[in-house]
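Researcher: Re-running this chain for the archive, since the previous output was lost when a drive failed. Same request as before.
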Amino acid sequence: MSVIAVFNQKGGVGKTTTCLNLAAAWVRDGANPLLLDLDPQGHLSLASGVVASPGAGMAAFFQHQTPLLHLLERTRSGWDLIPASPDLSKIDALRGGDPKAAALLSKGMNAVVRERSPILMDCCPNLGVLTLNALLAADYVLIPVAADYLSLQGVFRLATALDVLEKRLKRIYPRRIVVTRFNPRRKLAFEVDRQLRERYGETVCKTRIAENVALATSPSVSQDVFRYAPHSGGAADYAALAKELSEAGFLQVGRK
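Model: Regenerated structure tokens:
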């Protein structure tokens, strides 16, 4: 069993793209992933071809404690998704003052839900109630970092925040950083990659996700990159990343 929070406090770094295409890569390998869209923007849901009605999906879980297994939506790409709806943005305001609210998702992932492996959670880019729920439920944290200066500074702050959270929760989160939107024609991309590897060592994935037209375009037609352009560089990169994470023991891939 493997529950993975895909998280970065900076937007535009490839969180949703990573969730979408890692799931697709593992489906191709015979896995049976479950995706949770915990970002009120709902980009993962849209990219998967699923539109949640108001109050449905993850909002129904947090507002009405609807069992997660009752909220599954089957995607055309072959995995189950619990979608986001705009109502999800209300959760921080409604439950932010409740100290027990951060553990709702962890408690809601009963044994049947956890048999689905991997479970990938696309987190919103802030450390509010939704993200804290994801982190408390997670076994691992995957941090996409775009190969630019602002993203580099963001990951330094994020790593510090996770260190503080680990001390408070008295647990360790195995982490991996994956460099995304890597442009080999830009010196800055190599400099960001070098600084990350010098500072975080083997925590940084060997696989880099290069900038690719197919990766940018495929969500607009509600397809993962393997369905949209199976021979593209983007498909090759995410296939390599899925293999690297599996072989490194970062996750355990359940089979259909």
